[in-house]
Amino acid sequence: MQHLPGAFDELKRNLAALERQGTSEIHVLIFSSLVHTPRPCADLKTLALPQLPPENSDINGALTASEGVRSISIFWVSPHQRRVYEEHLAKTFAWADANSVHFEIFDEVRTKNKLREGLASLEVRR
């Protein structure tokens, strides 16, 4: 479980730092269920899914803040959350299409398949 607003704020700062360093090609890989757990979470007993994105977080702004981004891949997303975030990130999908940025959200099953494909391609290279 995670604190999503803080994680995406940190992503935005990291992307800005990479731009200041002159990095021209950035590939964003996110491994997250996209389930927000407010802090502190010690008293949290249950989570109801699907869960709407946190209102106090500009996730679209964080993902589209850098001109150097060439791809965004979000892995390990709960199937319940995937549909919610595909709708919530419509602005990011439109930005990605307009800027030739590959953007994809992978649920758990597709994440496992992508990891297997990646491991298989590493084996072929040896």
Quick synopsis:
The protein is an alpha/beta fold.
Structural summary, described in words:
The chain is an alpha/beta fold and 126 residues long. It has one domain (4-125). Helix content is 47%, strand content 17%. The chain has five helices and three strands; from the N terminus they run H-E-H-E-H-H-E-H. A three-stranded parallel sheet has the order 1-2-3, with helices on both faces. Helix 2 (59-63) links the parallel strand 1 and strand 2 (69-77). The mean pLDDT is 86.
What fraction of the residues are assigned to beta strands by DSSP? 15-25%
Global Rg: 16 Å
* Sheet having the most strands: 3 strands, parallel
Low-confidence stretches: none
Order of neighbouring strands in the sheet with most strands: 1-2-3
Q: Fraction of residues in helices?
A: 40-55%
How many β-strand stretches? 3
Could you spell the SSE succession in H and E letters? HEHEHHEH
